[in-house]
Amino acid sequence: MKPALTGTFLDEITHDIPSQNWRDRDWDNDFATMKEVGIDTVILIRAGYKDQVTFNSQVLQEKIGKLLPVYTDLVQLFLTLAEKYGMTFYFGTYDSGNYWLNGDYQTETEINQAFCEEFIRRYGDYQAFGGWYISHEINTYDEGMMQVYEELSRHLKKLRDVPILISPYIKGIKQFGETAISFNEHITAWDSIFARLKGIVDIVAFQDGNVAYQDLPHYLQANCQLAKKYGLTVWSNVESFDRDVPWKFPPIDYRKLRYKIEQAEAAQVDKLITFEFSHFLSPNSTFPAARQLYQRYWEWITQR
User: Fold this and answer.
1) In a domain, 2, yes or no
2) The domain that contains 197 carries what CATH number?
3) Strands (DSSP E) along 169-260, which ranges?
4) What sequence ranges are listed for the domain DUF4434 (predicted)?
């Protein structure tokens, strides 16, 4: 058996997905399930967002101000569980939800440089730590964000020379409607972006949920070809939540998940990851539909 999905994001600092209110043993149980189903890579979606943070960060207290209390050190928990279950952990950066969105790219960069230094001081000895994830998502060319990626990536490589991952999204019709960009505009923009990121970012994992299903194969193939042209490893972020219903966000229909996996495999991406196993695909999820989705997915991959 070769599982289709071998990586997942871990979403615990969020603004649009409800918390499952898990204790340490609940997370342990879910990591065990991930291991059983073939997941070998876990990616912290972000280590902090606005005034929420996954560990008691002195850097953010000084630079951001008053933060919400941290009752469980999730970074330590996730690193410990990743080591227990033989997984590689990617550390997701801090998203201010403010500076970079308002054009102050330098402040966003400087906060993250200090924040990631703090992470290395506190957690750098964990053997499971094997990658950086820059949590700031873009959908087309943005000169300010190019500077953030360039400056931050170089700093991260000096702190620990491990792969750097980004997971951009497509400015597609599902989210942007009439303001979506065309397929050709997408190609032009990302050719320019990858030319800037060559040798700086190692892995790109496009989110796959913002375009029509009929158009997805073309985007997957084009993204893969473009990224490899500039020497980037290509993963696909197979969204396991559904964007096609009127509320945010339920587990996706099994048929859609299978279709997206099959199309990503046909495009010859290097790895399939998902956003996000614990909420939308786990038998331990608080969503009943996630438990059913897991059963359908498990039956499919074990019969292949």
Assistant:
1) no
2) 3.20.20.80
3) 203-207, 233-239
4) 5-285
Per-residue exposure over 96-133, b if at least 16 CB sit within 10 Å of its own CB, e if not = beebbeeeebeebbbbbbbbbbbbeebbeebebbbbbb
What span, in angstroms and rounded, lies between the C-alpha atoms of 146 and 169? 15
User: What is the Cα Rg of the chain in Å?
Assistant: 18
Contact 5, 35 (CB under 8 A): no
Number of independent structural domains in the chain: 1
Q: Print the domain residue range for 63.
A: 7-303
Question: 48 lies in a domain?
Answer: yes
Do 270 and 281 contact (CB within 8 A), yes or no?
A: no
Measured CA to CA in angstroms, residue 197 lies from 6, 201, 263, 267, 302 at distances of 25, 6, 26, 22, 38
Interval 7-52: pLDDT, tens: 999 997 777 899 999 999 999 999 999 999 999 999 999 999 999 9
pLDDT at 69: 95
Question: pTM for the full model?
Answer: 0.97
